[in-house]
Design goal:
Elements: H1 2-28, H2 31-34, H3 47-59, H4 61-67, E1 85-93, E2 97-101, E3 104-115, E4 118-125, H5 127-132, E5 141-145, E6 148-151, E7 163-166, E8 172-175, E9 203-213, E10 217-220, E11 227-236, E12 241-248, H6 249-254, E13 262-272, E14 276-288, H7 293-304, E15 312-313, H8 323-328, H9 336-340, E16 352-363, E17 369-372, E18 383-384, E19 390-392, E20 397-399, E21 403-413, E22 418-424, H10 425-431, H11 437-446, H12 448-457, E23 462-474, E24 477-489, H13 492-504
Parallel strand pairs: 4-7, 12-14, 12-15, 22-24
Antiparallel strand pairs: 1-3, 1-5, 2-3, 3-4, 5-8, 6-7, 9-11, 9-13, 10-11, 11-12, 13-14, 16-21, 16-23, 17-21, 18-19, 19-20, 21-22, 23-24
The structure holds zinc ion.
Residues 373, 375, 378, 380, 392, 394-395 line the site of zinc ion.
Subunit structure: Component of the heterotrimeric canonical replication protein A complex (RPA).
Protein name: Replication protein A subunit
Pfam family, one: REPA_OB_2
Length: 506
């Protein structure tokens, strides 16, 4: 009997040594995954099979090795794979969804898995929901075996894998908490400056230092009418650029991080609205201070080379959205005199972008809006017909009423000079306390006092104006037209911080 028990413990420890070697090689050498077939001869027992195997060892040790299974890297899985074990980190667990139709009802959930070779989605239905949904935890490592492999449905998943897993009756999932079970992640990070060259709607991995974040706001989906909580965050990296990212729902509500935190996102969706932005979808992986080399490097940079004032913003380019154009038209704080006193101002084809802190001296109230087309995204001026209807020539349509849009001229001043600028609909509304051009037009025609009061009450207010000055020609005479691209009410706290930083530069 003594002999048998020696054999037993030897076999078990051999098994776990093999296991360690396998994982060790997997995580240290990238070439290991280039030739996944090289792992075929390294057999590793599934833990839940150990007991059964031990019984076999007593009878015939060769049977045990025949019955054991290989730990496969995710990237080696195809619809032809079977009988494999995955050692994976669970990066995301979806909520349980139920359905009900003429053919019956049921429920399902999905989970995303990752190892350092790749990522894969797994879906479980009905009984497997009950069995596995509560076991799988984000950030924990699991041994997953006996899954079916199917072709990925790209409509529901943004993971970079053409295969997906289905949990079925044979599937087993066990958490492993040995020393080798640190979360394993595989990222393919894109520098923030390079996001400019990424196609809109692509999914990318991004890592950055949290520069700042904004409050949670609620937005309503135009298509479903449902409302979502969202929060915008600004990430910076060594490329010297920042990008705006949007996080949603619970992630947005629970977000409670300091500036300087390292954030890694896998599967962020790229969008383009006045410059490139990223959005963190429900199946993106969102990690705070991940323990990966890229995060350590970024932390070093933040501690030594980070200069907030020199960062350029990728997400606010007003269409000048290439890295070179971005640096050319980069916004810097200046004064009205420095811009308007320059004889060459606005001669560049795209004009000159600048930012000033200035006060509204007065509005021109004689003309402040124009009647525009009601079609979506048209905004063209409409002309009143002889029958009292408003006609858009571009859309070839007539409307009972026009939609008024602002084209508001105002004079702004800072400590160096003053100048006339034009505000269009979005920024004019900010400057007039949210009053729309339609409302102001009907006040002008109905309540002269209220009309004057709106202008009067909004003079003397101070804003950070982002402007574009552009030289225009009219009958051989050149004139500088300055347009407000964006007007933000002064945030005295952040202004004071900026001043202190500026003082620190001298
Ligand atoms: Zn139109």
């Amino acid at each position: 009997m003594g002999n048998i028990s020696n054999t037993l413990s030897e076999s078990v420890s051999k098994g776990s040594d093999l296991n360690k070697n396998n994982i060790g090689r997997a995580s240290s050498a990238g070439s290991f995954y280039a030739k996944p077939e090289s792992s075929v001869n390294e057999k590793v027992l599934q833990p839940h099979e150990k007991l059964a195997s031990l019984k076999n060892i007593v009878n015939d040790s060769r049977i045990a090795s025949q019955k054991s299974t290989t730990i496969l890297p995710i990237e080696a899985i195809s619809p032809y794979s079977n009988g494999f074990v995955l050692k994976v980190t669970c990066t995301r667990v979806g909520d349980i969804k139920t359905w009900s139709n003429s053919r019956g009802e049921g429920k399902l959930f999905w989970a995303n898995f990752m190892d350092n070779s790749g990522e894969i989605r797994a879906t479980g239905f009905n009984d497997e929901v009950d069995k596995f949904h509560s076991i799988l935890k984000e950030g924990k490592t699991f041994l997953v075996s006996n899954c079916k492999v199917v072709v990925a449905n790209k409509q529901f998943s943004n993971l970079k894998n053409d295969s997906e897993l289905r949990f079925d009756r044979e599937t087993t999932i066990e958490e492993c908490d040995d020393a080798d079970s640190k979360p394993q992640y595989k990222f393919d990070f894109v520098n923030i400056a390079d996001i400019n060259n990424v196609d809109t709607n692509s999914n990318i991995d991004v890592i950055g230092v949290l520069k700042e974040y904004f409050d949670v706001t609620s937005t309503t989906s135009k298509t479903t009418g449902r409302s979502f909580d969202r929060r915008d965050i600004i990430l910076a990296d060594k490329s010297g650029y920042t990008v705006r990212g949007t996080i949603w729902g619970k992630t947005a509500q629970d977000f409670n991080q300091e500036s300087g935190t390292i954030i890694a996102i896998k599967g962020a969706k790229v969008s383009d609205f006045r410059g490139k932005n990223i959005s963190v979808s429900s199946s993106s992986l969102f990690l705070v201070n991940p323990e990966i080399p890229e995060a350590y490097a970024l932390r070093d940079w933040f501690n030594t080379g980070y200069k907030e004032l020199e960062l350029k913003d990728l997400s606010n380019m007003d269409g000048a959205n290439t890295a070179s154009a971005a640096s050319k038209f980069e916004t810097h704080r200046t004064t009205i005199d420095e811009v308007m006193g320059n004889p060459d101002v606005g001669k560049a084809e795209k004009g000159e972008y600048f930012t000033v802190v200035a006060t509204v001296l007065m509005f021109k109230s004689e003309t402040f809006a124009y009647p525009s087309c009601q079609s979506d995204n048209c905004n063209k001026k409409v002309i009143e017909d002889s029958d009292g209807r408003w006609r858009c020539e571009r859309c070839d349509k007539s409307f009972d009423t026009p939609a008024y849009r602002y084209i508001l001229n105002l004079n702004i001043a800072d400590h160096t000079s003053h100048t006339w600028v034009t505000a269009f609909d979005d920024s004019a509304r900010v400057l007039l306390d949210g009053t729309t051009a339609d409302e102001l037009t009907s006040l002008r025609d109905g309540d002269e006092t209220a009309f004057r009061t709106i202008f009067h009450n909004n003079q003397g207010k101070e804003y950070v104006f982002r402007c574009r000055a552009k030289q225009e020609f009219y009958k051989d005479e050149s004139k500088i037209r300055t347009q407000i691209m964006d007007a933000q009410p002064i945030d005295y706290l952040s202004e004071a911080k900026k001043l202190i930083e500026n003082i620190g530069l001298f």
